Amino acid sequence: MKKIKKQGSNICFLIIVILLALVPIMYQYELIEASSTVLFIGKCMAFAIVAIGLDLIWGYTGILSLGHGLYFALGGYAMAMYLKLQRTGGGITDFMHIGGLKELPLVWKPFLSLPVSIFLILFVPGILAGVIGYFIFKNRVKGVYFSIISQALTWAAYSIFIALSPYTNGNVGITDIQSVFGSIKGSMNFGNLQILFYSALILLILVYAGAKFLTGRKFGKLLIAIRDGENRTYFSGYQVSRYKTFIYVLSAILAGIAGAIFVNFNGSITPNQMTIAYSITMVIWVAVGGRGTIIGAVIGAFLINMCEYKLSSGGLVEVWQYLIGAIFCITIIFFKGGIIGIVRDHLFASGRRKKAERRELRQNS
Amino acid sequence: MKKGYWKKGIVLAMTAILAFGVAGCGKRKDTGSSNGGGDTVKVGILHSLTGSMAISEEAVRDAEVLAINEINKSGGVLGKKIKYVEEDGASEPSTFATKAEKLIDSEGVATVFGCWTSSSRKAVKTAFEDYNNLLWYPVQYEGMESSKNIVYTGAAPNQQIVPAIEYLKKKGYKKMFLLGSDYVFPRTANMIIKAQAKALGMEVVGEEYADMDQTDFAAVIAKIEKAKPDVIVNTLNGTGNVSFFKQMAEKNYTSKDYMTMSFSIAEEEVKTIGAKILKGHMVSWNYYETTNTKENKKFVAAYKKKYGKNRVTSDPVEAGYDAVYLWKAAVEKAGSFDVDDVRKAIKTGTISFQAPEGKVTIDGNNQHLAKPVRIGVIKGDGLIYTTYETKGTVKPDPYLKSYDWAVKAKLQPLE
Hints:
heterodimer; A: mainly alpha; 16 helices; 74% helix; 0% strand; B: alpha/beta; seven-stranded mixed beta sheet; five-stranded parallel beta sheet; 14 helices; 15 strands; 44% helix
């Protein structure tokens, strides 16, 4: 029992991985009837990766970023441009033509090659977050001010992407692309989808393991220390701003990776992924799942997205956003630990809870 | 103790919602089948019912549902009742993509009616092509596209923009100021207009793009005052229009000072901006609520009866209504719900419908509609009245291949 408690989140993740690994097989045995469901679960894996990144900075380090959509979209655009250029054979795209460009602009040239594109998917969000993080954290901007700055940056980037429509196709974004493994839609292309699905799953496992590795050692304890008492940590001789910058860069890179995976499944990227609203949605996944646990972020990302997928159709089509909103509000008001918190407090910690209840009774009387 | 109970209750309720959401993911509930079997045929409706586009798209959705109900009442299609499955695109292109896949693949619909914005159409295009399904797209748009898996029931540029500029020329307007929201439709429209103006000997004295949700037009109005155009060609969309026209009105400018020709203002928008402000301004569409046909009187009456007296019909609303009937006609001609068969029927170029705007026919080659063009003037009662109407229908030409000036300006996309 004790072991289960200690390894609870890893066991939980293992179950999720097994379930995910079974998804394509279930499709082949017709337990899942539509390949689009498989495709959708693939997108959820991308969301889970960005959620892990957010959990690292918010759940562990206490930095609430409301602008991770920016890094997600940067990774997405980088991937999408590579895929788009594959489709045009390296020539200029239709939107560049309409925008009056005669040849491929220099900024997009590197995206003709896959290795360079993959490098840039990691590098661009990383370096941007590095520069921003360096200045923000060095000047000890924190709390709500950081959140506001992260929003402003996202908004600025969104406006730039809209304004530079000959380069980015404005608010339509980059559409009409296939995944790196070719078309993934329909039953005849299921082979491609399967390869993509398992690649994404492997990435998710790696990201989860990496996050667990980082948080499980002294480094993780330091992040929590920064969250709970930044000044104390600072006066204990730790360069707080460096740790913060590092974790911010790392989560931005994870967001970039997630964006790239998302594009492969989604077949398009639009500036909508870069909006503040979308960034806040990501925070909601983490909050509902339970922050500061890694596994909570994964669960939150999957549950919320699957609920949206299911609820936003048929009879509930008019009210689904209220339902999701209600879940979020209730979680935040009553269950600060999110879903993981509920499980931990109500299922596994019965002994502890009874003790706490007894204490409460004593205090009340 | 009491508190503990209802906390548990909340946990239970939340678990129920979440479980319902997740459990439903795997299985397909198949009540109607798209090809053969059962006495219903399933179609999809994919519009934004939440988010910023909801107001516009719900009106189209209502028209589509109206048409489906009418068809069901009169016996259905090929003896089968139409059952529609609705998905919410939530004004978000990638949600549209996800939902299109869900409708086609999980629900197995025979066809889908939906989308409004160009970004949502472009986001779902690959899904319809890869799964080989058929989308009926009900809004006028920027052209330069012709997917074999989309039927465009709104106007192509040569059925809205090009005739409007010709009309302006005929009425003696020479200096144009191009004002639009910053996205693909205004940019492409203005690219076309500039090429056309050159050919017609008209002058473009300014070109400005506003952010989608821009509310301050002082700088734009100052530029207009400086450029002194005869007419402002307006492709602003959504809230931009409200702010722009209100700020023009604040400066006491009416259509007598600065005439505008708008491509995105229909009856619905007149209602939000205010008929008083828009009085006398011109618009270009294929259909108005006042269009004088027998079919339209019936359509407007039915729409108002079902959805309320204060609701108005407009061009996209009517195009959505037509789409359902055109699909029915194509299916009946094909004798099958299969997408390839339906497309073969469309290819004959004989699928037509006596629509509220007049008779419309699907062009077999580019899957756009041949439809009449109407230049309208907004009147004080909030309705739009036709001042000029083409004789018969205008053939759709999304790539403007039949216009020399367009060919010379190399407007066609690559590929």
